[in-house]
């Protein structure tokens, strides 16, 4: 029984693991590497050949967990992809959009390199296109929370609420080899407790092995007050200056949470009615999927629906699908709010809105999510005086702000709360992934000292014999 660590090792993105049991291989997640130092790995073939994997388990659809699935299929993977029903619906939207962005960015890169008379480090072609997406989508199979699925003769998998995004899951694997059965928990991304819309994370009382995320393993979420008040303060301050609030937005969960809170502020009169743009075809489609999967909602969201309140609709909201509609936002002179993907500013329409607004002192660039090391979002948040957007340097004159509490990830206390549920039945070993090296190592130290668990932080392409 072996476990291969193929991504999100001592860095955040690119989650990918391969579990080898009784001669058959199952991939858990297949995510895209988004940090600049590791993006080369997207162009490399998977270290475990695609045609040697018989199945894939998907924790959730964020691109750093699902974004290389079409490329994996293009390399020869033909097995079933198991995920929750909400994730299946979201995956179609996410992967189609990712392919479109890949094609658009490759074309833009090619034109820019032709103008500059140079060649880039990577081919001026997309990582994959809609052709590979169309090949991947029929492989998805829906599973229900709490219902075991027979993945191989030796492996069953049960999906549990992760509290991270709609449809997100922790995956409990029962693996049998040579007469021995081992329980392995893949945490996926662990959400916060008491978040809007989705249910709280699941906890477990025992496991043989735990593969656990560590994004915020070295810090707590800063407490800037309740989210609604923080958001109202930024919006009202920017409105008084006559500028736009530009929010890099993750299409899944973060966009819907923003709509949830902004709508509440508008209905309560805490912010004026103003133009609010959700400029992301993917986020718009995802919002429709949210409305179809209310079975994933928490009690508060269900109560609002029962009272007849549409939590994701409010006065002033405009959803822009087309490129022409996106460009027209630049002609709106009234102060407004622009939400656009991608959340780390690595691609998509947000780059165009940053280019239009980042040099304007009256505007605010508002971050509501984690910005991985090396991304454009991290550069802006760290206070770089100039940033490179679409091949040109732009001075950062807009105000840069950050709201705390939106994060879809548990902080250090939340992670310790989650792993602490195993205290009475310690696992044989805990592997920490999906965190920058310093965060993962710090959390490993805390888990070791507080719970006396055996814990390590694997390197990329580490191969571990379980048992």
Summarize the structure.
Helices cover 30% and strands 21% of the residues.
Which labels suit this protein?
467 residues; Metallo-beta-lactamase, Chain A; Rossmann fold; 2 domains; seven-stranded mixed sheet; 30% helix; 21% strand; globular
Secondary-structure topology with pairs:
Layout lengths: L1 E4 L11 E5 L2 E5 L26 E3 L5 H4 L2 H6 L6 E4 H32 L13 H7 L3 E4 L5 E4 L2 E7 L7 E9 L2 E7 L22 E5 L13 H15 L3 E4 L5 H15 L7 E4 L1 H12 L6 H8 L10 E3 L3 H6 L8 E4 L9 H8 L6 E4 L8 H6 L4 E4 L2 E4 L3 E4 L9 H8 L9 E5 L3 H15 L3 E2 L6 E3 L2
Parallel strand pairs: 3-4, 4-5, 5-6, 10-11, 11-20, 12-15, 12-16, 13-14, 13-15, 16-19, 20-21
Antiparallel strand pairs: 1-2, 1-22, 2-3, 7-8, 8-9, 9-10, 17-18
């Amino acid at each position: 029984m072996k476990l291969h660590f193929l991504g999100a090792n001592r860095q955040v993105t690119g989650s990918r693991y391969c579990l080898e049991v009784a001669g058959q291989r199952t991939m858990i997640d297949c995510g895209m590497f988004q940090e600049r130092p590791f993006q080369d790995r997207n162009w490399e073939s998977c270290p475990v050949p695609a045609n040697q994997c018989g199945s894939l388990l998907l924790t959730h659809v964020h691109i750093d967990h699902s974004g290389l699935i079409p490329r994996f299929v293009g390399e020869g993977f033909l097995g079933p992809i198991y995920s929750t029903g909400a994730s299946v619906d979201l995956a179609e939207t996410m992967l189609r959009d990712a392919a479109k962005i890949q094609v658009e960015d490759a074309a833009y890169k090619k034109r820019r390199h032709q103008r500059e008379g140079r060649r880039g480090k990577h081919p001026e072609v997309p990582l994959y296109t809609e052709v590979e997406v169309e090949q991947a989508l029929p492989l998805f199979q829906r599973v229900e929370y709490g219902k075991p699925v027979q993945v191989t003769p030796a492996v069953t998998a049960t999906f549990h609420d992760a509290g991270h995004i709609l449809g997100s899951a922790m995956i409990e694997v029962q693996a049998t080899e040579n007469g021995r059965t081992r329980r392995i928990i893949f945490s996926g991304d662990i959400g916060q407790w008491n978040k809007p819309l989705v249910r709280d994370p699941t906890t477990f009382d025992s496991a043989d092995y735990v593969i656990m995320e560590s994004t915020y393993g070295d810090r707590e979420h800063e407490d800037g007050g309740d989210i609604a008040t923080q958001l109202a303060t930024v919006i009202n301050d920017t409105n008084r200056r006559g500028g736009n609030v530009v929010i890099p937005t993750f299409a899944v969960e973060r966009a819907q949470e923003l709509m949830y809170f902004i709508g509440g502020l508008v209905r309560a009169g805490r912010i004026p009615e103003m133009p609010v743009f959700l400029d992301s075809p993917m986020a718009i489609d995802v919002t429709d999927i949210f409305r179809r999967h209310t079975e994933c909602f928490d009690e508060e969201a269900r109560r609002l629906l029962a009272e007849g309140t549409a939590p994701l609709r409010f006065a002033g909201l405009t959803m822009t699908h087309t490129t022409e509609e996106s460009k027209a936002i630049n002609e709106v002179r009234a102060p407004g709010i622009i939400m656009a993907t991608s959340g780390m500013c690595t691609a998509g329409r947000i780059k165009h809105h940053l280019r239009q607004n980042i040099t304007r002192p009256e505007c605010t660039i508002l971050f509501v999510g984690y910005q991985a090391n090396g991304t454009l979002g991290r550069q802006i948040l760290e206070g770089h005086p100039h940033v490179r957007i679409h091949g040109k340097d732009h001075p950062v004159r807009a105000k840069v702000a950050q709201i705390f509490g939106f994060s879809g990830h548990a902080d250090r206390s939340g992670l310790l709360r989650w792993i602490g549920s195993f205290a009475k039945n310690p696992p044989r070993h805990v592997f920490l992934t999906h965190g920058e090296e310093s965060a993962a190592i710090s959390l490993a130290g805390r888990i070791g000292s507080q719970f006396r668990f055996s814990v390590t932080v694997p390197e990329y392409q580490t191969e571990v014999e379980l048992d």
